[in-house]
Each structure stands twice: as structure tokens, then as C-alpha cells.
Predict the structure.
Amino acid sequence: MNKRIINIGYLFARPHESAYAIVRRILSVNPGLTYSDIDDILRASQPNQRSPYTRLSALTEQNHDVTSKYWLELSRASYKRQCPICASELYHTDIYALDWLARCPIHNKAFISRCSECGKPWPALRDIDKRDCPSCGRVSLEYLRNTVLPAASSLSYQSIEKLYSLVDHGMGDDELIIRDPDGAFLEWPNWLEIAQPTSKYYAALMTKNHSTFSHDDLVSSGIHIHEVKTQSTRIRAERHNFDVTQDQIYRTPKLKQAPSVWRKSIRRMLDSDFAVMQSLVAWSEAHSIPPHNISIDSYRHLGNDHFTDGPRPCVFCLALSVWFFHVMARHYAEYVADDINNYPFLADNMFKRPLSGFEPEIIVGGKRYRPDESFTKWFYQRGLLLSFIEIMDHACATRITSDARIGDDWKLEVQSTLDRSYLEKICLGRVSKGHLDFHYLNDNILEHYELPWQYLSGRSCHVYQQFHTKYKRDNPESHIASFDNKAFDKSAFDATITNFDIFIDKHYGSLPAPAPLSSLL
Amino acid sequence: MNQTSHDYYDHPVFSPHRLRLMTPAITTLSDTLHRWLWTGCTGGFVTGSARIGKTTAMLTLLSTLRTRGGSGIPTEYVSIPVRDQRTVLSVFRNLCWSAQLPVKERDRTDHLSERYVHYLVDRAVEARCQYIVLIVDEMQHLVANQFNAFAELYDTLRLLDVTLMVVFVGNDQESTGLLEQVETSRYAHIRGRFFTQSLTYRGLISKEQVEVCLQQYDDMRYPLDGPTYTEFFLPQAVEGGWKLASLSSNIWRIFRHYQSNYQIESWGMQYFTAAVNTLLTDFLTYHGIDEFDDEMMHECIRMSGLVTGLVTERA
């Protein structure tokens, strides 16, 4: 079979056209051919390009890497958001898909999801040739010749060029690592989610980090700048090496002989554990149905059947308990932390070891730095709260799973519950001139955390506690603490830790006695 | 002989389509086309005897046309085949085929017309040139009505700011009727666009022109850094200072014999190169340059088919 070619319509090309715009143009300059005719020819001429988007994009010069996964994903759905005037001129560019771009930078028009001419949703790539509409379908030569871009008008595409330079700029923070000096908890998910151009906070971050892109300039290009908060801290070179894990330190009588920087760190973390737990107890009481006898238990005995058949546990007690065990295991029993976090009823919801709070160590270009004390404390407490929210999400998801016995839609509900706190986690660090700028969205994470009330309203902890009593009687060590409207003070916290240690002792073997908490706080 | 048999028979002299000699007639044609282009002509026609070398000349010039500023002008070539259907649709279908554009059974005339217009525009934009030349060979296979297809192309391209020049090429004897038809008032719009300029293409008409062609055998090399064409076949003779061009007087004198006997206007390039190639690759290679004589050249001309061709044409 002879090699065939198609017309490209170079005369009507514009800067940074999307694959979608290229298809409309190619269909218009190849009248009578269908999209599949064209794709067949492109497939034969570019056998190495597997996606129609890369085959089409390869036909024009692009500054960005159109084969990257990010651009391909953006490209596939970008047509759903178009400027009505651009569309009538056969123009569209992938950058219009980005949420933070509120208006067309060329015509200052809001993006729309339907064709302004025929009122139908913008056609997908394969359906363009079926539309007989000058704004969303194939156009005739007579119409097409009016879309030739006059040289003078090409200046208006500079704003598109500017947007692409913004997207391609990147945050340039590959070298920055914020890690747990213990080395055990290196993962802090979503560090860079906010730094992706698809994030709605991307433009805000660019104004904060690059003098090239001023706030006013971007707003005038039709960009909506979402608010992003920043914590700045000076960073100093770290001189100490933590060559033992902290749980060993907690459990050694030589704690007082440990370097002062370690002792300070341990005190700071325990202080934060107490402060955060106090706020979580108060938050749980405030959001649940009174009277609420908040209880910390091991929940070792619970299986999925308890959720489906028996009285269901209170998600507040459950989440607080799981969180407490997780945080305390970190300090006192790291070597059994995986076992402690292995709850049979949470396994179905893909619960693994949750996030942990940690005092950060900053690594830039292989060198280690320590941020100042107030930031370190703030960062650690934020980690504890995120950890609780993640556990609370799973607890809610488990509860919802057991409540929803009516088909498959529960999966969606579970997912949306898990996603609810997602934005709270997004954060980004950036180091410049001896300072770390840490960007985040909300100061008080718990205040912005939305519970799935439709599943929790009217649920009392009381019924479950009655059911639970029998197990508590046979396994008294499984009950760690109750806070029956009592003030959660340091002595209560101390007692809770002591009970936790008894539990560990019973289930995982004898351990050295922990350092007296009162001496640390 | 040092060359392997593969290399030997791969020489351009053995494949007439690869042997491109810049003859004086091609130079004249090039000058004429440039004059038409630079004076804003929208087209013209070139006629000449069969086998005279018109097609080869046009193919030689395909990538050589330039604007006054020196930038290349995209040039498209299409050869019109003999068809039962002599419609405008069949012209566009043929144009699209020649450009390797897809053609479907369901395609209407306006589909194909627009498709080919966009093809020409793409070529013009790629070359950053507002002009484009379309060479239509074997125009004698067209009927007058089909010229409307080219007029339509010209008009549509004007709307897109691209100027088309169409050069029709045909055999003089077979094109006469068509050209007379175009002269009638019914085709005034066609005549005004494409038939006010003309050129009669001729083969070799003088000893000097034969010498120019033979000198190219002495100058062109195969491979590019290898021996000259003459040296490739006669290395010892060339080493001794001999040149093929030295035979130009003798060759022209012997051709003149046929020219007067058969009333040949000019020596068609196909017959000339066939005769010279036979002389170079067979007779001189095997018998040596010292054995060259009139009989040898007569034999070469006879083997080129010149006489048979004339008899066939006249018949």
C-alpha cells in the first residue's frame, strides 16, 4: 500500500495548540476524511507513537514535553474547558484545563463546557468530524480563511507563552528532603502535589517562590491565586548524629546522660504528644453525642464481623485509640509498631502504618540542617494531627463500609471520605538563603476537617461500650484509659502511657521500664 | 576493470532516469520559467516533440525554481494519464493521488479540490514562499473543460494569499487540437490565465550543444568522489588526456546525416543519451578509442531507436 499523507494546515496554526485544536484544524483542511482516516495515516507514519495525542502533537513544534505523562493526562480532557472566542477561531490549548486559570488570557472570557454556538457539550476528539458547527466542528475553507492569524494578532498569544513558561518553570526543589532523623519514617506523602501545575495552588506558589511571576501580573492573565500560608524558619547545619533510635533512648536509664539536644527533642515531642492528645480529646468530645465517655482501648479483638453484626464501635474512640497506640509505639516500642498497627478490621481498607509526626531534618544537596525550635515543634504537632486525621478517615471508612449494605456505591463514599482531608496534607518546602519556606493550606487542620456526618449523626458510643465491657473484663490490660468528662491533664496522660506499657509488656514481652514521664515533662 | 559488477551496472549511465544532463534546452526552459514567475505570469505551456526530453527537463527543474530573492519555490509535478472519465473530478482525483493524499470513493469534487488546495498551501507555508508552481505533464490527455480545475485552484489559492503558476507540458502534435479549442471565446478565462505564454522545447540543435552535453560526461563523477563518467569506463584513455567531448564534431556530423535524411528538427535527448551511452559503455570500452569511426557511431544511433521512433511517430 502506498504511503499516504494528510494536510496539516500550517497556515492556520497558532502557538501552543492542543492536540484537540490540531485535530479540528486537520479535519478542516482534509475535507471528506474522518478522524479515523486521519489517525490511520498518522499511525502508519509514526508507528512509534502509541497515543493519538502524541501522534498529533508530534506534528507541531512544542516547547514542553508532550510525551510526559502529566501532559498526556492533561491533554486527554483539556477540551472540556474552552474559551468561546478561541473555539470560534479553531484555537485551544491544554493549559486551559488548569483550574487556577480562571479566564482566557487572550479574550478575558470565562471558560465554558458547552459550545456557545450550538449549545452542545464540546465534542470529544473522535466526534469533532460529526459536528457541523463553526465553533466546535469541522469548518469549510471559506470559514477557515478568516481564521488565518494576522501577524499583528500574534502578539496576543504572548500571554499563552507566558503561561507555559510559568508551567514549565517548576519549583526546582528536587534537592530538598525533609525527613525523620530516626530514619524510620522517611515518607511524607504529597510533598510535591501542590507544586504540580495541575494543583490549584500552583500559581500561588509561583508568586511566592519566583520573582519572575508577580501576583498582579498573573491575576491580569486571568489566573485565580488561591491563598497559601507559609512558615519560614532559619536552618542551621546539623552537627549531631542520631545513631540510636529514640525508643531506645526513652527506655534507657541513661536518658539524663544523653546529649542535651536529644533530651530537648524528647521533651519537646512528649510535650507535643500531650498537647495534641489533649486537643484531640476535646475535639472528639465536642463533635460526638454527649455524654461521651471517651475510651482508649487496644481493639485487638475486633474483626470485620463486629462491624457488620455487632454494635459498631464509636469512630472517635476507635480513631483516638489507634492514633494513641501508633504514636506511643513510635516512642516506646518501635520494634513492634507494625504489629500494633495491624488491625484486622482496618486491613480491608488498605490501612498500613499511618503518617507519623516527626521533628524534621532538612537535607539540601546532601547536607543536613536543623530548623529552629518553634518550627520543629509546629511541624511535629502538625504531623500528629495529620496522623489522627488519616486514622479518623479509615475509621469512618470502616464504619461506612459496615453501614452500607446496599450495593457498590459505598466504595465511592469511602473514597470521598478519604479524599476529604487530602488537601490538608498538601505542603511544600523550599530552601533559599539559609531559610526554609514551608507552604501549607490551613493552620488549624482539625477545624477544616469535615466529618461524614450523614454516617455519624445519632450514633452513640454508649451501646458499643456496653458490648465491649465483657471483653474488657476478661482482658483488663486492653483498656488503657477513659476520660469521663474529666480534665485530660498531664497525670492522666502519664497514667495512659503507663497502661500502654503494661499492655505492651503483656502482649509483646517484657521491656525495660520507661523513663518516668513526670521527669521529662 | 576494478569495479564490482554490482557497482558497475549501478552507474547512472545504465539507468536513463538517473542520468540528468543540464542541456542548453533545459537552461533555456529554466530561464523561461523564471521569467514567467518573476513577471507575475499565472501560467504557460511548453510543447515539443515526443521523446525530446520535456519530462526529464521538468523533473530536473523541480527543485531549482527560485524567487527574485533567491528562496526556493515549491514545485509540484503531475502527469495526466489517459482516462475514460474526462471530468474535473478526475483531475482533482489525479492531483490528490500525485500528492499522495488519500482519495476515497465517496469524495466529492469540492472535497478533493479543497484537499489539494490545502496541500499546496501547506507546501507554500513550509517553504515560506507565497508562490507555488504546478507542472502538468501530458496535457494532451486533458479536455478543454478540465482546465477549469486549474482555474479553480488558482482562484482559491489567491484567497489564501498564495499565487499559483501552472505550467502545462505536452506533445506538440497531440496538443494542437486542444490548444486551438482553448483559443475559442468559451475558454477565454482559461486562455488568459494559462495560455498567453509558451515555449517550444527542442532537443540538441548544434554541434556546440552536443559538446556541452559530452563535456558533462567528462566532468560528472560517480560516485561523487570517484572517477568521471568517461574515466569510469575508459580509465586508461582519460589518464592519457582523452575526453569524450573531443568526439562532438564527429558525432554531430553523423547525426546531421539522419537529420537531413529524415527531416528531424532536433536530436531528442532520449535518443542522444542512448546513443552516447552505448558508444561509451560498449563500443569504446571494448574496442578502444582509437577504433572510433563513423560506422561505430552510425550503429550507436541506430541502436538508440531514433529512426524507428521517427517512423513510428510519423506512422
Q: What stands out?
A: Chain B has a mean pLDDT of 90. The first strand of chain B starts at residue 43 and ends at 48.
